[in-house]
Amino acid sequence: xxxxxxxTPMFDTDNNMVWLHPGYFGGVVEAGGNPIMTPWTLDKxxxxxxxxxxxxxxxxxxxxxxxxxxxxxxxxxxxxxLRMKDExxxxxxxxxxxxxxxxxxxxxxxxxxxxxxxxxxYQDLATQHxxxxxxxxxxPYDEPVHKVTILKDTPLYELAGVEVLLVNSTxxxxxxDLGPTLKAMAISEDDLIEAFYDTTRKFVWGVQWxxxxxxxxxxxxxxxxxxxxxxxx
Length: 233
Hints:
- The protein has 8 helices and 13 strands.
- It has helices at 22-30, 44-53, 83-98, 108-116, 125-128, 155-160, 211-214, 219-231, and strands at residues 4-7, 10-12, 17-19, 34-37, 56-59, 102-106, 121-122, 146-150, 164-167, 174-175, 182-188, 193-198, 204-207.
- The longest helix is centred in the middle third of the chain and has 16 residues, at 83-98.
């Protein structure tokens, strides 16, 4: 049987609906997994039952992460959060870690995982980490806009087989200080942590770029999805 991958939903506040970019599903299916969307609820029993039935969890993109999750107050009005998503995903993350499930986070998903595992974030890159690197590209999102350096002696370097990777990028926040069990795997041109992994668990990865947008064009993005899905088996 194909491994079941639970993907946490995004939320459209304008239309009051849950949704996901089809690339999340496509990337998982291409890699041999069976993707489902996790429930949009704060009912702990329902969420834990869903984690029980999944072989892995993928944390999606979306709103900014609540600063209180990493012990800070909101910096400015550019920080737009959605408490429901953070509280829901914290239940899912804690249970997935408890069960040692394979976990993968993309963009905000990476940021949330880091915050939920004891790390901190840059709340607003424009004011806290200004640079000339394009971290908020305009469409099309499957085109690379900056380089990252993949660190040697990391699982991503072993997987990708390259030291420099061109990536797409569209994010407002970023990882600042890593959680205590997390280690960087890639660094941007302006010294932001672009990928990490957990050194204590079988598979806990986060990437700042968007493989769900470019997996059809990027061999490395396809390899990342495959690595995740294989870890779920």
